[in-house]
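sry for the spam today, last one i promise. struct tokens for design, 65 residues
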């Protein structure tokens, strides 16, 4: 069975490195999962990632940029 995390009460945060142009993503974390959403389209939902997948994404993006 696949767990379905509840992000209803989660607080989404924008990176302190964002430029204020609205071309950023926000991240919320709950135990075992992270959610990523577009700051320009918050109502469009979010992408849910298991914690290990989110860690891998962050490491790979950090290395490339």
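last one done:
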């Amino acid at each position: 069975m696949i767990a379905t995390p509840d992000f209803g009460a989660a607080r989404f945060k924008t990176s302190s490195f964002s430029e204020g142009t609205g071309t950023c993503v926000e991240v919320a974390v709950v135990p075992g999962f992270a959610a990523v959403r577009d700051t320009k389209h918050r109502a469009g939902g979010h992408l849910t990632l298991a914690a290990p997948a989110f860690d891998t994404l962050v490491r790979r993006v950090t290395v490339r940029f």
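The radius of gyration is 12 Å. ok im logging off now
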